[in-house]
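CO-FOLDING WORKSHEET

Operator: S.A.
Ligand of interest: 2-acetamido-2-deoxy-beta-D-glucopyranose
Run index: 296
Mode: holo prediction, single chain
Checklist:
[x] sequence pasted
[x] SMILES validated
[ ] output reviewed
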Amino acid sequence: MSPPLSATAALFILFVTTTSAATIFKTEQHTWGPFNTSYFNTFSILNGNINFGALQVTPESAGSVNLTNISGRIFNKQPFALWTDDSELFSFNTSFLVNVFRVNNATPGEGISFLIAPNLTIPDNSYGGFLGLTNSTTDGSSDNKIVAVELDTVKQAYDPDNNHIGLNINSVNSTVAVPLSKYGYEISPNGTAFYMIWIEYDGSRRGINVFMAPQADKDGPTVAKPLQPVLSSKLDLRNLVSQKSFFGFSASTGRTFELNCVLRWNVSIQTLPEKSSVIMGIITKRCRLGLVWAFL
Ligand SMILES: *[C@@H]1O[C@H](CO)[C@@H](O)[C@H](O)[C@H]1NC(C)=O
Ligand SMILES: *[C@@H]1O[C@H](CO)[C@@H](O)[C@H](O)[C@H]1NC(C)=O
Ligand SMILES: *[C@@H]1O[C@H](CO)[C@@H](O)[C@H](O)[C@H]1NC(C)=O
Ligand SMILES: *[C@@H]1O[C@H](CO)[C@@H](O)[C@H](O)[C@H]1NC(C)=O
Ligand SMILES: *[C@@H]1O[C@H](CO)[C@@H](O)[C@H](O)[C@H]1NC(C)=O
Ligand SMILES: *[C@@H]1O[C@H](CO)[C@@H](O)[C@H](O)[C@H]1NC(C)=O
Ligand SMILES: *[C@@H]1O[C@H](CO)[C@@H](O)[C@H](O)[C@H]1NC(C)=O
Ligand SMILES: *[C@@H]1O[C@H](CO)[C@@H](O)[C@H](O)[C@H]1NC(C)=O
Ligand SMILES: *[C@@H]1O[C@H](CO)[C@@H](O)[C@H](O)[C@H]1NC(C)=O
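OUTPUT RECEIVED:
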């Protein structure tokens, strides 16, 4: 066999091998909400609450407690693996219905985010512009190992405005921030607004897309996902977060406050199948690798 032909064959088989490695992933799905007290078993709640059918990422009891300068987090207690031991990234999608409510039509503050974090803690003094993500000591540190998608209602020096969506990597200064006014969306308008957010992480392309759409009725069917994302970015999670990370939400209030409510939440994530099929996958992979060697 001539060298170019065997090289082509080897490339072809390598291609088959990598494709088969990707296709052995299975997908794990979670559909959560409306929320009630039974979810205290599933979620870890730091400063927030479950009430009125929603995850209250910061406390909701207007009138009874001082709702200014608070931060909170709510996590799914079970961590997710984000890549295989061979560094092959899993893909995942998460979608949620959110209501950022301004009480008595007062100015809202500060924001809520979907968060990937290495443990079930919250930094001290992460209220105000820190959105429950970082604080004045930790902001910007790669030790944070957090990636978040924020809905921000207060303009800080580093923000484009007081109504944007952003991709945050270890910092509240977003790496990508998109003003939502150009879509006619207001995160926390007078009255009540519900928004669906879809976050899609493609592990093989190492990219994130975030879609957003208003939904009139919180109890109605989920609105259709728009074709175009509001935010799109390259993102290689392997260099940023822990291989096993927790998914959840963080939020904060500052001098002004808002209620940070999540009414429904889905997660769909790739994972390795049961041991038996993994072993079969490895055997198949090894056999194919053997074939490659034979060709070479
Ligand atoms: C709480 O929600 C769960 C899941 O939707 C449901 O199965 C359960 O019946 C609810 N419990 C109460 C007390 O409403
Ligand atoms: C909340 O606490 C801050 C600072 O302690 C105070 O300025 C504010 O008046 C309090 N608000 C209410 C409603 O008690
Ligand atoms: C995420 O959604 C996209 C678009 O609908 C779909 O192609 C992909 O298979 C989904 N991935 C997972 C892990 O559910
Ligand atoms: C969650 O998934 C279920 C089942 O596919 C779907 O009916 C529902 O609309 C989804 N909800 C959200 C918030 O994405
Ligand atoms: C929101 O309501 C408040 C109080 O009623 C009012 O002062 C303010 O102008 C309203 N804002 C908008 C944008 O409609
Ligand atoms: C920020 O949080 C870390 C823990 O995550 C803590 O050690 C540090 O003291 C906090 N900084 C401030 C200013 O509270
Ligand atoms: C949790 O993770 C943060 C970084 O996001 C780190 O500063 C903190 O020490 C960790 N806490 C524990 C208990 O592991
Ligand atoms: C925010 O980050 C950008 C780079 O992404 C940087 O140019 C800017 O100085 C930062 N702003 C602050 C206030 O840290
Ligand atoms: C909130 O915290 C900021 C900064 O720490 C402080 O200046 C302000 O007085 C606090 N406001 C309230 C209402 O507690």
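REVIEW:
Residues 148 and 154 are 17 Å apart (CA to CA).
The chain has two helices and 16 strands.
[x] output reviewed
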